Amino acid sequence: MRRVYDIIVSILGESKQGGFDSNTLQYQFNCPNCADEKGYVDGKYNLEVSFSLGKYHCWSCGMSGNISKLILKYGNRGLCDEYFRIVSEIRESRYYNIDMFSGDTSVFSEDGLKLPKTFEKISLATTRDRKLYEYLKKRKITQDIIDLYNIGVTKWDGEDAAWRNRIIFPSYNAGGDLNYYIGRTYKDTDKRVKYRNCLADKSQIVLHEDKIQWNADIYLVEGAIDCIYYPNSIALMGKFLKKDMALYNKLYDKANARIVICLDGDTEISETKRIYGLLNHGRLYGKIGYIRLGTDELPWKDFGEVFEAEGKQGIAKVMRAEREFNEIELLV
């Protein structure tokens, strides 16, 4: 238990209690989110961390969640992995209350997100599915892209017909755990809905978070497939970004370079402007740009079409077309 306390202290600084006490399962710390908002540490120790619940809550700004998320957000993956190991040992030990860390289900949930039962990573060299091979070739999804994103395919499992014969695009969080996946049909004769999403709440995850470099330029695209064609692209999985979404909070807290919005060519420019205005304030002010597809200069609908038509050279051309809105343009 002391080591868990030490991990949190290494991230947040010393607690109000001034040190670890084996008889104490609840500690108060200065809140890092409040410090970010105010520009200084207020010394009020409003962030309460409960080992008995596996939760944290700030009584000032309202930030709350599982301890593991706190460590991952303000610490690093190594500390989070160590926390997982320690808590697993605690849960297995007869010397500790079984309810200890009971709220932190991110480590222990047996009902956690899992890929479809028949998921199998694709090998272009050995696949005998001609339709699958042709679709991937058309989309220029090569083996190196497949390996990087662990792209797979499903077969009929005898139970869930809706997931059969789909290309699966998995996503993993910063800790390397599966946080989402999308299935796409690939046969011309398939009359089902093309895309099927898993049951996880997409507003509370960052797609391919494990691959995001927060100190490099980030590109916001719409589709889950679009983001595999260019490093540091994040799919909105739609046309919207709102303040209550995990992606917005991660961008505002962690992004240190430019954020470039590149919605589909058939999307109204007003939606690009809305997202631009949403992000262009505080620590991100002046770091937001946009690219407009579907124009005479850039006639493609999305990153996927760009890559299919002109490969990496086409993507580079799109990158060079980045612009910024001035204040008057944002009002129109």
The first-level CATH class of the largest domain is given as Alpha Beta
The succession of helices and strands, N to C, reads HEHEEEHHHEHHEEEEEEHEHEHH
Number of domains: 3
Overall CATH architecture of the largest domain: 3-Layer(aba) Sandwich
pLDDT averaged over residues: 88
Looking across the biggest beta sheet, what order are the strands in?
A: 5-6-7-8-9
Which fold name corresponds to the CATH topology of the largest domain?
Answer: Dna Topoisomerase Vi A Subunit, Chain: A, domain 2
Tell me the number of helical segments per DSSP (H or I, 4 or more residues long). 11
Regions with little confidence, pLDDT below 50 for 5+ residues: 105-111
Biggest sheet: strands, sense, closure?
Answer: 5 strands, antiparallel
Distance N to C terminus:
57 Å
Give the overall silhouette.
globular
Could you say which structural class the secondary elements and strand pairing correspond to? alpha+beta
Number of DSSP E strands:
13
Helix content: 25-40%
- Fraction of residues in β-strands: 15-25%
Radius of gyration: 23 Å
